[in-house]
Amino acid sequence: MLEIKEQPTTTAGPEPAAPIGWRSKDLLDTDTLSLAEIEAIMETAEAMREVRARPVGKVATLRGVTVATLFYEQSTRTRASFEVAAKALGADVVNLTASGSSVEKGESLVDTVRTLEAIGTSVIVMRHRSSGAPYLAAANSGASIINGGDGTHAHPTQALLDLFTMRRHCGSLQGKKVVIVGDVLHSRVARSNIWTLLASGARVVLCGPPTLLPRALSMSGEPGECEVTTGFDEAIGGADVVMALRIQKERQESGLIPSLREYIRGYQLNAARLQRANPGALVMHPGPMNEGIEIAPDVAHGLASVIEEQVTNGVAVRMAVLYLIATGRTA
Amino acid sequence: MSEALLVRGGRVIDPSSGMDDQFDVLLRNGAVEAIAPSIEPAGARLIDARGCIVTPGFVDLHTHLREPGFEHKGTIASETRAALRGGFTTVCAMPNTEPPPDSATTVEALMERIAQDAAVRVLPIGCVTRGRSGRALAELGELAAAGCIALSDDGNPVADGRLMRNALHHAAALDLPLSEHCDDPALSAGGAMNEGRVSERLGLPGQPVAAEVAAIARNIALCEETGARLHIAHITTARGLSLVADAKARGMRVTCEVTPSHLFLTEDAVFGNGPASFYDTNAKVNPPLRTAADRAALLQGLNEGTIDAIATDHAPHAVQDKLCEFDQAAFGISCIETALSTVVSLALRGELDLVRAIAALTIGPVRAFSIDRRIPGAGTLAVGRAADVTLFDPAARWQVAPDTLVSKGKNTPLLGRELPGRVRAVIVRGELAYSEETVHA
Predict the structure, then answer these.
(1) List of chain B residues whose C-beta atoms are within 8 Å of the C-beta of residue A216
(2) Mind listing the domains of chain B with CATH numbers?
């Protein structure tokens, strides 16, 4: 187990070496992570969780490192979580949003990222409405890019904090049934979770209305396969984890579903449905929740819910990712 | 009077006459003077074609020259020189320019620029609707009189079925082919690539196969009612192709083309060379690259003759049009210089019959647009007819790289690949317009 010593913030302490198994400059999605890298993140996050539990909750490991958060989309929890994580490691944090910045003046993403690199930013946490935007940034910059959510593609740190939370409760996920319900097709959270869950040996069931499900998402050449179904009542049977996804009102406006009322009828995670899951099943949600739509309030705040813990664990997991990437750069 | 040229010792393939043997070809005064097993030079300039294949100059039914309006992407000068390097002696210029050629005035202005700058023969395609807006018909008779070889709104499919029907009636009366990008915009709206396994993996909005199939079905039905010559531009789907085969079997005047990109690549090209190059915007093209099964059907359609032409849909773009987010990137592949090489690659792999492919680069497109009415002998090597000839070495390999491409557009997913099939010389109107190490005084 990696040990991280609390250090005085006035002097730079010795750099802990990056654990063996970490090799990536960027974190763009979970699909390219090796099992060793996933393990490295989980182990490091465990150590970070312990750091956070201390009275000060802070170390100086990344003192002198500048981390930028570059958010082209609104976000509260992800951005705040990354900022808290970076500061807990002693890094300097620069926050940029698309509105009120050079982006509004028409600067391209590539130029923005190169500018951040030129002023000394070595890690950029990025959220963007276009799927794949972090790949463009990573390919055109020497800075490390951490994907904080790109379009309808990926949200790797969410998947990693979800995995971390599941493992804390379930231990190994080998053979465990994880049901992801909702707008899977447009969910970057679901997509990134698929890779970590399959790699961990879980049985993954994707469930939702037919227009919001992937039809051709093939895992060929990858570990395992997802099951895809429209029947939530059957799918939830025997589940060890149920993850409800946020449903956006625009899905109704664009005609993908007849109404939110119809969605609730078929896919709301409520107490009656949760009865069908295994005893002790976990209820998860990446947030922000539409309580009373994709999840009933009593379930969201019930005994089975680990939704708040997900948020707490998010800081530790993001500390781990920042730590591994930043120290990997100098290793 | 141009000097006489003697193309000597090559394998001459002219699918229009079934010719495929070693011949010398003598060209004089812009016409083919003789084709025979051995011709004495008698003062003609010698072009050494040993090891090369000699064919009629290639004809492209679908080229984007970008001028006027988008000169930062390409010009008539730059893109016709790229065409020449690709072995093309005639290109049909698509009308997505600014202004678009939707009147005699704009067509005439375009023809003047072509006369000044073009390195190959250029035949303009006129708009179906005013401003390519899909709202009101352009004055199609005037466009025909001004010299348009065909009609098309290019990347803007004529969505309104009634308007399309009227356009086809007029096109039939004028005996002009109408080249249509068959796509139901309601189905494909917002789609950045083929809808399927890859789009779902990458979280990109997709264009479903049904968008093309539904539009082809509608347009064939309208073609049947109007008797027009419907040309399906860049067909990409197996199901769409089966509709074309069925229409042809019923004797309808339907033709179709396929791009070298869709013959050679699948939707997997968007993955680039692996995770570090996912979202390769150079593989973003409309209609999108499809599945392996679709590609196999297109190859079969070409080998069996259902597909009339290989047309490039050459679409040069500036760096900033592609170095951006995938959903923001422009559609299109710069491929007029790689078209032959992809065809040769496929022939070497045994996926494509080389003679059929040459037919689809020569006589096939000429028949589809009746280009021989304008250029007698186009797409053939016939004594007394146009001396447009292409020589290529099928064995020579070359590296696709920004500095090996003449086009202003370096946007191709083939960058970095080494491909077989190099154009050695191109003769346009009896003049040696391009040559590479093959000419002896």
Answers:
(1) 195-197, 200
(2) 5-53+387-405+415-440 (2.30.40.10), 57-373 (3.20.20.140)
